[in-house]
């Protein structure tokens, strides 16, 4: 079910949308929308509920504290019928900052000009605070069950390890320096490589096929380096990070379109050079690896994958 954000009808209308969607899909229980209105932030709308999972059984987040801290396992990209909404259906009206407090909200979702929307392909803060859009935008809502108070089951996926670096990579020294950063953080010598493209090498071609990759929190991130059901935004020490990440191309299976997409093949940290970056908190096929271009004089973290 979807409506223009300015015609949702406040919290009552939003909760009705959630209830109707649940009824239509045959889902039991009571639901509230993750939206904020005057005097009622989303942070306070879920009561003492906890332990949220997606309809495919994968964990989303355990507590309200985890939601506002960005400790989110898998993005909420499934609708009430467990259908992935796809790269074109990720816009979600929230009117809510990443701390669970009220933001621009289409006049409490009854009109107005603009409101804050989240991105259903994302975790960390972007899931609720992605961008401001027009209140005429037809949108989805996040609907949270409020009946259960059972801790969410922790992820248990196994496979090759994928993580986001704690330290930033300064684009100099080529791929060798990037790989060195990955292995230094992992306390290994040649076990990991950076998911970076150059003008001659596609990032995905640096790894063998077969065993899937999982994050340090045991969430599956990819089986084939083409589709990413969850983002690689967790560091080896367990931090959940929202950051721009060096990548160097438009997709993992592509080489850089030129030296200005890869900081001169990761040898230039000059302000006049640029490179492609992705968004660490996103699982959207394009935004994960390519969101915009950035100057090479500002170091950024990198994705590190086990070979």
What does this structure look like?
It is a single chain. By secondary structure, this protein is of the alpha+beta class. It has two domains: 3-145, Mannose-Binding Protein A, Chain A (Roll), CATH 3.10.100.10; 160-306, Roll (Mannose-Binding Protein A, Chain A), CATH 3.10.100. It is 14% helix and 19% strand. The protein contains five helices and 17 strands. The protein has helices at 10-25, 64-69, 106-109, 174-186, 263-266; strands at 3-4, 31-33, 52-53, 59-61, 91-93, 114-119, 131-134, 138-139, 143-145, 160-164, 192-194, 213-214, 220-222, 244-246, 274-279, 292-295, 303-306. The model has no long low-confidence stretch (mean pLDDT 96).
Secondary structure: elements and pairs:
Elements: E1 3-4, H1 10-25, E2 31-33, E3 52-53, E4 59-61, H2 64-69, E5 91-93, H3 106-109, E6 114-119, E7 131-134, E8 138-139, E9 143-145, E10 160-164, H4 174-186, E11 192-194, E12 213-214, E13 220-222, E14 244-246, H5 263-266, E15 274-279, E16 292-295, E17 303-306
Parallel strand pairs: 10-12
Antiparallel strand pairs: 1-8, 2-9, 3-4, 5-6, 6-7, 10-17, 11-17, 12-13, 14-15, 15-16
